Amino acid sequence: MGNPFCEWSLLFSTQISEHEKIQSTYIATCVLNSFLCYSAIMLNCVAIYAIRKTSSLPKTLKTLLLSLAVSDVGVGLLGQPFYTSILIKWLQQSNPGCNTYKVFHIITYLFSLASFLSVVAVSVDRFLAIHLHLRYQEFVTHNRVVSVVISIWVISTFLPFSIFAVSLYIYSYIMVILDVLGAILITITYVRIYLIVRQHKNQIQVLQVQQVAHGNQAANLFSLIKSTVGIFYVYFVFLLCYLPYLISLAATKMNGPSIVLKGCSVFSLTLVFLNSSLNPVIYCWKMKHIRHAVMNILRNMSRQRSHASQEILPLSDMISCINKD
């Protein structure tokens, strides 16, 4: 049996006769990943700071969102630069070697799996918040959520290394089963959330009419629903970014690697990485408290720059006066 990492590289790398046909795809993907690498790091660092500063978010939701944001920083900090370096090697018609593919596989799967499991965990958390409502804080404690986050990172670290202990066939089945179970769990979760919201639609309308008497209860319920919708968008964008890659892998498995499928695989992996840049945008767009925290950060940065420029202007005036003398 051949090395699984070298076999994986056949999905993306080309023969000498195919190189000219896919060269433009390599270049475009390389440039795009260089930009997305920077945006993933910067946007998620701002998101992490904003989440930490948002006092109105529950500690449990904060912890899960921070786990998701850290995994996205890891993609931008390690995964995308590594992928860009491999693309440059392919442009030079050089084979990076199986060990390079091993490291790339471990890094990519570690952070991608941590991201996926964090999305699953935060989706379940929002379901419990709506389903349990007043009993939520009693059942979902911060210590339990921290234990879940630690478990997510232990699993995400262990599974990519398990390919050294089991065959590629068994490893692939483990990953597929985990992905399918996670997707089913999230789908069931959001179907249940939708049914609960419909069931309490009349209650919500009553709370709107009696907002003076039940202002806090109405506000909490609306906040829960809005945060749940925000997490649903995170999951939906996650699917949009990951499905093309999974489809290209399945098509290659059934039909064998062709120049068209190789180009699709190269670009679809970039869509997977794009997800790490989109998540913080969704936080700011759909979660009001995080959006306000980000706006405050940007305002403070603007004030600091204007203050620095005001300090520099008198110094420049002094220098011009000295030069005149």
Provide key terms for this protein.
325 residues, mainly alpha, Rhopdopsin 7-helix transmembrane proteins, 11 helices, 86% helix
CATH class: Mainly Alpha
Oligomeric state of shown chains? single chain
Total domain units: 1
Q: How many helical elements? A: 11
Compose a concise summary of this entry.
The protein is an all-alpha fold and 325 residues long.
Describe the fold and architecture.
This protein has 325 residues and is mainly α. It has one domain: Rhodopsin 7-helix transmembrane proteins (Rhopdopsin 7-helix transmembrane proteins, Up-down Bundle), CATH 1.20.1070.10. It has eleven helices and no strands. The chain has helices at 4-9, 19-53, 59-91, 98-132, 136-139, 142-161, 168-199, 201-209, 215-255, 259-286, 288-324. Helix 4 (98-132) runs antiparallel to helix 6. The relative contact order is 0.13. The model has no long low-confidence stretch (mean pLDDT 79).
